[in-house]
């Protein structure tokens, strides 16, 4: 019994920071269609969590990846003040105002977490 309890306490100590970090990520900005209207990701503790947040935003807005849309090229841009991830998304089904076959670039302002490991 003590071994099981110790395991769950250790597991909780390990997972609590991860769950807390995910809960702190917020989105600001607009629709992400242009750099000026980029989706701003705030609160990601590192680049891995920040990139995951980009895909979560897309899934929340349009539906499941590889069912409604699929990712294509991904690039990094800067305007000397901010850093952006630019993702090419191909729609596999109609979603929002897009039709199946449309390829659209989405801009994410990653300045808040860029370079954090």
Descriptive account of the structure:
The protein has helices spanning 2-23, 47-62, and strands at 26-29, 39-42, 69-78, 83-91, 103-109. By secondary structure, the protein is an alpha+beta fold. It has one domain (26-109). Strands 1-2-5-4-3 form a five-stranded mixed sheet, covered by helices on one side. Strand 3 and strand 4 (83-91) form a beta hairpin. It starts with a helix and ends in an 8-residue tail after the last strand. Mean pLDDT is 86; it is low at 4-16 and 18-22.
Draw up the topology in text.
Blueprint: H1 2-23, E1 26-29, E2 39-42, H2 47-62, E3 69-78, E4 83-91, E5 103-109
Parallel strand pairs: 2-5
Antiparallel strand pairs: 1-2, 3-4, 4-5
Q: What's the story with the biggest beta sheet?
A: 5 strands, mixed
Distance between the termini: 37 Å
Average pLDDT rating: 86
The Cα radius of gyration reads 17 Å
Can you give the helix content as a percent range?
Answer: 25-40%
The SSE string, one letter per element, is: HEEHEEE
Parts with pLDDT < 50 across at least 5 consecutive residues: 4-16, 18-22
What is the beta-strand fraction? 25-35%
DSSP strand count? 5
Strand order, main sheet: write it out: 1-2-5-4-3
Overall 3D shape: globular
């Amino acid at each position: 019994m003590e071994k099981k309890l110790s395991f769950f306490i250790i597991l909780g100590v390990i997972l609590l920071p991860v769950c807390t970090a995910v809960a702190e990520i917020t989105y600001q900005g607009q629709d992400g269609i242009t750099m000026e209207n980029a989706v701003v990701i705030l609160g990601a503790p590192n680049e891995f969590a920040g990139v995951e947040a980009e895909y979560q935003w897309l899934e929340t807005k349009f539906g499941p990846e590889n069912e409604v849309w699929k990712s294509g090229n991904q690039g990094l841009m800067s305007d000397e003040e901010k850093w952006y991830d630019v993702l090419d998304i191909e729609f596999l089904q109609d979603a929002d105002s897009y039709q199946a076959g449309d390829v659209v670039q989405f801009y994410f302002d990653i300045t808040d977490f860029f370079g954090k490991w």
